[in-house]
Design brief:
Helix content is 25%, strand content 23%. The chain is of the alpha+beta class. About 4% of the residues have low confidence. GO terms for molecular function: acyltransferase activity, transferring groups other than amino-acyl groups.
């Protein structure tokens, strides 16, 4: 059970083309339509937005549509992006640090978003397995912000090519749900239709209470001592010298894990969902493979995102970061010996803990303290965000994926190719070689 895509150093790895030979034909700044240009000013960013000051890059691949040749697609996207900068005025602004409040905010100065048109010498079918994290995919997202000061970096860069759209945004602009809504609106505008969903841009909805009221302990948050700056990025750093592998869980594997949890004594609070069983399985493997020496008393903590819109009665269209890190913790000896259903229960409890009151306490904690989420590792799930469901005039994406930067402390979940195995999930793991060997052995052992 469980298919393994090997790392690039192994001869059985998928054949990929790392240099996509991308040529940039045009690079322009897109502004909102002059007659409806967004009024200048600053936009408040919540305490959740404050710690997400890093760029997120995604690539969306399409099968060629003869009715929409690349020049026409580029023109429609350019027009759509300009129109989108009216309801999403902050995307035409810049991120800045307010010298008085020492908080990040959006300066809605109308400086514009960047739009780039490029082409590759290769067709979609020639670049290899889209699921496999091809280093060449980085060429499909413009890096023009790398050498710019933060106040000069565009908050949105869209690169259009013959078979792919690359998007780079600062994470402070969107979470996964609001980014999908943005893509749906972009697609609708490209089809000369109204917005699919009007965004809610009022980030004061997630402002801290006055005075702040931290009513829970928050072991999932790490306080930074006075005088020490936050790391950049503020959550997890990239690391070199790591092997990476993709573990594919088929729908049969996921059903097997669910049944495994159901066949054991389950507390009534446990929810045997696809995400919970996959995350519990990955947690067990990661916890027991970490470090050079196994310490049964070491406590392992997994972090995973929970959408708080419904918990705080926010509009679904809230355009910002409305996710917080839930957590589950246990000593390694319990993770190793406990029934699988116990780990599923702990995952369930982590999400259930995130009530509206708890979410407000986390936000207020960020008002009182300088810090960020901290755990042994974070599961970042792109599995069911639904980017491939977005209907553009030229069709839905064949595949959508993040541009992957290997991090030991982040494990990615992402779907398989559309139409091939919609119920499967791919688990991207990056670890030092010895830990990877342990993780792989445990992955298959506990899947049996």
């Amino acid at each position: 059970m469980g298919t393994l895509y090997q790392s690039p150093t192994i001869s059985t790895s998928p054949k990929i083309i790392q240099d996509l030979k991308v040529t940039i034909h045009d690079s322009i700044t897109i502004f909102p339509p002059q007659e409806t240009k967004t009024e200048a000013g600053s936009m408040f960013l919540s305490n959740i937005d404050q710690v997400l000051n890093f760029n997120v890059e995604t690539v969306h691949f399409f099968v060629a549509n003869p009715q929409f040749p690349p020049p026409l697609v580029a023109e429609k996207l350019k027009s759509a992006l300009s129109k989108a900068l009216v309801p999403y005025g902050f995307l035409a602004g810049r991120l800045r640090l307010n010298p008085e409040s020492r908080r990040f905010e959006f300066d809605c100065n109308g400086a514009g978003a960047q739009f780039v048109v490029g082409s590759s010498e290769f067709e979609l079918g020639e670049i290899g397995n889209l699921v496999y994290p091809n280093p060449g995919f980085k060429q499909l997202v413009v890096k023009s912000y790398d050498n710019l000061d933060i106040v000069d970096r565009p908050l949105c860069i869209l690169q259009c090519g013959g078979f792919a759209i690359g998007v780079a945004t600062n994470h402070a602009t969107f979470d996964g749900i609001s980014f999908k809504i943005f893509l749906e609106n972009l697609a609708s505008l490209a089809a000369d239709k109204p917005l699919a969903t009007a965004p809610c841009n009022d980030r004061h909805l997630l402002a801290a209470r006055s005075p702040p009221h931290v009513q829970f302990d928050h072991p999932e948050l790490l306080k930074i001592p006075e005088g020490i700056d936050l790391p950049n990025p503020t959550v997890f750093d990239c690391q070199d010298e790591l092997d990476f592998k993709i573990f594919n869980l088929t729908s049969k594997d996921i059903t097997h894990l669910k049944q495994k949890a159901k066949d054991e004594p389950i507390p009534t609070r446990a929810k045997v969902t696809g995400f919970n069983v996959v995350a519990a399985h990955v947690w067990r493997c990661k916890a027991l493979s970490s470090g050079t020496d196994y310490d049964p008393d070491r406590v392992s903590t997994i972090l995973y995102a929970v959408d708080i819109r419904s918990r705080l009665n926010l509009p679904h269209s809230f355009a910002g970061n409305a996710v917080l890190s839930a957590y589950a913790s246990a000593p390694c000896k319990e993770i190793e010996k406990s029934p699988f259903s116990k780990l599923v229960e702990l995952m369930t409890e982590g999400a259930s803990r995130m009530t509206g009151e708890y979410a407000r306490s986390v936000i207020d904690w960020g008002e009182v303290n300088k810090g960020f989420p901290a755990g042994e590792f974070l599961i970042s799930s792109w599995w069911r965000l639904g980017f491939t469901d977005v209907e553009y005039p030229w069709g839905k994406p064949r595949y959508s994926c993040p541009v992957v930067y290997h991090r030991k402390d982040i494990i990615l979940l992402f779907p398989d190719i559309v139409g091939e195995s919609d119920n499967e999930v791919n688990v991207l793991v990056a670890l030092p070689s010895k830990e990877m060997a342990k993780f792989e052995a445990l992955f298959h052992k506990f899947l049996a």
